[in-house]
Amino acid sequence: MTDSVPSNGHVATEAPAMIEADGLCKYYGSFIAAENISFRVPRGEIVAFLGPNGAGKSTTMKMLTGYLAPSAGRALLAGYDMSTDRLKAAKHLGYLPENGPLYPDMTPRSLLEFFADARGLKPPYRNERIEAVIKQCELGSVIGKAIGKLSKGYRQRVGMAQVLLHEPDVLILDEPTSGLDPNQIREVRETIRRLGQDKTILLSTHILQEVEAMADRVILIAEGRMRFDGTPAELLAGGQGLDERFYELTRAS
């Protein structure tokens, strides 16, 4: 493809990178899940990691968070190499996978208490953080209900609350609005925009509207390879709509 990864101000910036992918590759035999993925995200930027289903977004995110070892390349978070300093990096990371670890018989409060203890948060900070994320994610009305009886929108808020407990600098969110109704999508987007005021956020999506709604920058991936890295305005340069550009950049080459 001729329209692959353009050089732009984001790549050249000298601001410290909070998220950095350096030639990340993941192979399963002859199958290429991700190949030569390289980008850096400075502090305070919301980046949409865009691509069709099966493009390699989740694989790349798992390598960035240390849940999956790369076949080649390096992943760095807040300056820490995930292959050698994962525990130090984890103190700076909030990771919300597409199907997060929520226990249906627990209430949001008991789940938050469980994760606070697992992260070693000590009183009074522990209790302060639990109350803070309950307010931040607007869980007060359901705080005593079983998670299994909550709507998917509220379950997504619970998941978001638990990743915010330890006040991470970096949030990596995998399909945070998947399966939500339009009102729930609006609420999650508003939450992410608020968080983006002082955190670095990388969120994967295949929903084109997420780009215009939330992102400062777009990284587009298809067939395990990067096809675009730039601003939403650069993505739409030339007057094409999102649908047309998405098709152009992701169709089989």
* Helix percentage: 25-40%
Q: Let me know the CATH homologous superfamily of the domain at 1-92 and 171-176 and 198-253.
A: P-loop containing nucleotide triphosphate hydrolases
* Helix count, DSSP H or I runs of 4 or more residues: 10
- How would you state the average pLDDT, rounded? 89
How do the helices and strands follow one another from N- to C-terminus?
HEEEHEEHEHHHEHEHEEHH
Largest sheet: 6 strands, mixed
Question: End-to-end distance, in Å?
Answer: 6 Å
Report the CATH C-level class of the domain at 1-92 and 171-176 and 198-253: Alpha Beta
The overall strand count is 10
Strand order of the largest sheet: 6-7-8-3-9-10
The secondary-structure class comes to alpha/beta
Radius of gyration: 18 Å
Query: Strand share of the residues?
Result: 25-35%
The CATH architecture of the domain at 1-92 and 171-176 and 198-253 can be named as 3-Layer(aba) Sandwich
Q: What is the molecular shape?
A: globular
CATH topology (fold) name of the domain at 1-92 and 171-176 and 198-253: Rossmann fold
Extract low-pLDDT stretches. 1-13
SSE topology sketch:
Elements: H1 9-12, E1 17-28, E2 31-42, E3 46-50, H2 57-64, E4 72-77, E5 80-81, H3 86-90, E6 93-96, H4 108-118, H5 125-136, H6 152-164, E7 170-174, H7 182-195, E8 200-205, H8 209-214, E9 217-222, E10 225-230, H9 232-235, H10 242-250
Parallel strand pairs: 3-8, 3-9, 6-7, 7-8
Antiparallel strand pairs: 1-2, 1-4, 4-5, 9-10
Helix pairs in contact: 4-5, 5-6, 6-7
